């Protein structure tokens, strides 16, 4: 567990800021690419706070990283690396979807916010810039420890609160203006369990935990409260599987926005083969081709043909509406969830970070303007029929009964 001694953590913050400002390339090489560097690489920077906090270690004349430190928009987020043999690992920040979510947080000044499945605590830490109070919940004790450490590291410990427990259990009876979530959605085969990885989803379609989240979220919202969930799931050729959301809110004063993080369709078969035939980060050994074929066939029989990454926003509206957004900028880079930053070259990481920085600077300067292509979400024949029947019933109710 990380030390939560404030003086030590604040000394770590000062050291990290100096290292990143004066030796950015070496910083990225050490913490993101997970490569040892010379003990003289950071010049006069005082590395002792990081050594005492067990973020780095000295091995001979080399500095080696123990934990991952991710620099994002003037903040530093400490997490574990993508190590497969530790199911309680606190997942590292994803460069694409996490940064996008942080910039998309629908936080209003003075809000009280809740982040479920908080992990490293990155969303409450960003929400604290505007929110009056930001709460994070996680079932993993290690995640709560890392979240508290990161809150102190970024100077928001007085505005944040991190609670240990399962989903909404620790905040029973409390209401929030904004509830966010990045639930466990990484598909794992049905014969595996979540003990293999707490960030994974073991129902075979990746929908079990998002369904539980949506089922319980309304009781913790204030009037006018909003919900944001960034996730990935199976779907048909046009939209992801969100019927559990649309069925819950249809007929209510809600607007459901599907914000796609990728521009081209991801075939379900290609996704399963690319991810599970070669990926040993979660499973320690590749999954057989015959099992993948059976798994894909089972999903296709349910009507699933594609895989999607997206941000769902549910907000108050005058009437029920579903809208999808297609960005002009490619948000999700790793379609198959098979790589982390240590697999990339330093030049690629640098170019990628610059691209996101430019994009979000442009976004901030054009806030309120159209940043995406918006279109109504296609409706299935079943939904169209239900709407026609509903309209007929309303028409009959308007007619006066014959005396």
TrEMBL record:
It comes from Candidatus Uhrbacteria bacterium GW2011_GWF2_44_350. It comes from the Bacteria. The lineage of its organism: Bacteria, Candidatus Uhriibacteriota. This is Methyltransferase domain-containing protein. Pfam families: Methyltransf_31 (PF13847). One of its GO terms (molecular function) is methyltransferase activity. Residues 108-229 form the Methyltransferase domain. Gene3D superfamilies: Vaccinia Virus protein VP39. Coiled coil: none annotated. CDD domains: AdoMet_MTases.
